Amino acid sequence: MDPAVCRDAHCVSLLTDFGNIDGYVGAVKGLLLSVNPRLTLVDLSHDIESHDVVQAAYVLGRHYRYFPRGTVHLAVVDPGVGGKRRGVVVESADWLFVGPDNGIFSHIYDELEAAIFAIDEASLLPQQPSDLFHARDIFAPIAGRLTLGLPACEVGSPLDECVSIPLSRPLTTARGIEGHVIHVDRFGNMVTDIPIDLVRSEIGETECVIEVADRKIEMIRRSYDCVEAGELLAVFGSSGFLEISANMRNAAELLAAARGEPVVVTCR
Amino acid sequence: MDPAVCRDAHCVSLLTDFGNIDGYVGAVKGLLLSVNPRLTLVDLSHDIESHDVVQAAYVLGRHYRYFPRGTVHLAVVDPGVGGKRRGVVVESADWLFVGPDNGIFSHIYDELEAAIFAIDEASLLPQQPSDLFHARDIFAPIAGRLTLGLPACEVGSPLDECVSIPLSRPLTTARGIEGHVIHVDRFGNMVTDIPIDLVRSEIGETECVIEVADRKIEMIRRSYDCVEAGELLAVFGSSGFLEISANMRNAAELLAAARGEPVVVTCR
Amino acid sequence: MDPAVCRDAHCVSLLTDFGNIDGYVGAVKGLLLSVNPRLTLVDLSHDIESHDVVQAAYVLGRHYRYFPRGTVHLAVVDPGVGGKRRGVVVESADWLFVGPDNGIFSHIYDELEAAIFAIDEASLLPQQPSDLFHARDIFAPIAGRLTLGLPACEVGSPLDECVSIPLSRPLTTARGIEGHVIHVDRFGNMVTDIPIDLVRSEIGETECVIEVADRKIEMIRRSYDCVEAGELLAVFGSSGFLEISANMRNAAELLAAARGEPVVVTCR
């Protein structure tokens, strides 16, 4: 990262499964502000399902790019806290990422050129961190220092390999495009792993039929109100992937479907 | 709005039905900070019921006035996103409002003198916005620009008419004041559409009897502990309207009542 | 508090039972920013159970120390709002606390040397505060003024006595250390009132057996992954107290236990 970007950095995003009841997120923010009182702190989510690294990786991968250059993304869904897993800083041209090396940065590795450093420089680590709350005792102080200009390479050893979760990818077969639901959002929108461009190039958005949970949906619509209230439709979602939705209704409930549900796009 | 107010503006409030799980609010905030890194961002609510424009309009109408002059209130509960509904900027003497033209600003129109502008100036719009996430792709960039001093009138065409939801109003009849519950809050407090001043002028706060859900409540109390724990009472709420509450208990659950429940104030 | 600390103060933490749906927290923040636009606002929690002063006192006591010197902690879980209970400002060497005098600061009184002042200086109070929303109408303006340098002693009369909740404490008996669960967090971790140091000095961390809800747990582990997934374990929690947890599972659900559950540490 260009040192000038890092020096200007004053935004830290936070992504955890800590919830908003117990005050854990507040303690992490207090720590960050103790290191750098001028930070702007933005919650990405704290209601990731407990220990669900896959969901956290998805949410981070979907939204990191909308933050200012120099933002430090602090992402801690960390069931292995205090065990053998390492802590890492991931440095790309425009953003920094801090968290456990457990796959939470899988989408980042997939999309960005990045250098990765293990957080193992002894002089930066607390004398007696809690082995159960590295977000507060290790990751927050490191993130705070990075916003003050600490070069990422100084947090510890460069890494050639790190943990990555296999990402869901669609297959193009004789039948069409075979993918899966990778996220269900608050509204019941079912986001798939099928890129818009793939549908456009392989089949076309008006000629396609989407098969999901024993239902068939014809063509891709531009907006929810293209169908009657309560009806299913397929749209090109705001993340660039095919989504299954329902106008004014929860599509996932309607289909009794969840993450992992197969979705097939064929030509009619 | 006085240009000086707008230039100093550095607070943006956010009101949506996006929830706090999926990271959508984080993306909107990242966008805002990309436009103006010095913003102070305040969540008004993101847990409005999905698509419930009436509830969103109420929450905005109740709280907007407590924010600093120059605050931009970004309010997006937007089931018609990407369809025919317009986006608007509403400019009053002290605050700006940005969101869809679907009635979410009904209380603002009712309470404030305001100029309204459609967001249709092509040079301000993105080349390829998602038709499903205008909060991120259209409203946030516009709100950010407004905090940097963009005059509201430059976002597009002035509007004479816009969408307004009929607001619930009490009737004064021979029987007394007949109103309705318009909001039930987290504590089970039932806020009505009956203004304090109307009760005072028509009946008086010690002489009145409130009828709701087959119960009768005598007089208006000053605070919850004026009755025994668990008992119903009527109070003049902090928004200036009559509320039905219970001391240390959820009144709405106790009465099995919800938004829309009739409330009648009579003289005993 | 050193006047220099107070003048630099620009962080206010917020702890309430207001929830995040109705916009009450937003109104409080708007008020704070109207008094001091340069504040950094941090949510500690707004999802404390309605009226649960004990839980609020615990969350505040656990996390206040991680905030920068000069932070004003605004803590309002306040079932007696508008009644006889006083409002107070509590001043310690490093932090200020503002809220109702109902026991919410019990852990603060227990841990810090502090001066306490009733908020009763008439010139600082609004003409017509709502008796139902002191957080917005009294505590937020006072907190805002404190961040601008108002000395705590000027908010009103010094107090010698104030309301304190009896804190849960373990007993050391012939049987061992007898304590209780004082908090169950989002993950189902059960925090006890038994300090780490007491276990270490009385019994030792490898020799001890923890009895809880008819189960026996041997020794203290360093991290969750020291046992198989789904299994119970005891750890020294990040707050310095003994905790009962389960690896990748909700211990409180597993044990059908809640706050108040007895926990006994014996020597095997």
Can you tell me about this structure?
Three copies of one chain form a homotrimer. Chain A has helices at residues 3-8, 24-35, 53-63, 106-111, 134-147, 196-202, 251-255; strands at 11-16, 40-45, 72-76, 87-91, 96-100, 115-118, 158-159, 171-172, 177-184, 190-195, 208-212, 215-218, 220-221, 232-236, 241-246, 262-267. In chain A, strands 8, 9, 10, 11, 12, 13, 14, 15 and 16 form a nine-stranded mixed sheet that branches. In chain A, strands 2-1-3-5-4-6-7 form a seven-stranded mixed sheet. Chain A has two domains: 3-159, S-adenosyl-l-methionine hydroxide adenosyltransferase, N-terminal (Rossmann fold), CATH 3.40.50; 171-267, Beta Barrel (Elongation Factor Tu (Ef-tu), domain 3), CATH 2.40.30.90. Chain A is 23% helix and 29% strand. Chain A is an alpha+beta fold and 268 residues long. Chain A is built from seven helices and 16 strands. In chain A, helix 2 (24-35) runs parallel beside helix 5 (134-147). Chains A and B meet through strand 1, strand 2 and helix 3 of A and helix 2 of B.
- Largest binding interface between chains: A-B, 37 and 34 residues
Determine the fraction of residues in helical runs of chain A and give it as a percent range: 10-25%
Strand content of chain A: 25-35%
Number of helices of chain A: 7
Tally of domains of chain A: 2
Keywords (chains A, B, C): S-adenosyl-L-methionine
Domain S-adenosyl-l-methionine hydroxide adenosyltransferase N-terminal (chains A, B, C): 12-154
Domain S-adenosyl-l-methionine hydroxide adenosyltransferase C-terminal (chains A, B, C): 179-263
Organism (chains A, B, C): candidate division TA06 bacterium DG_24
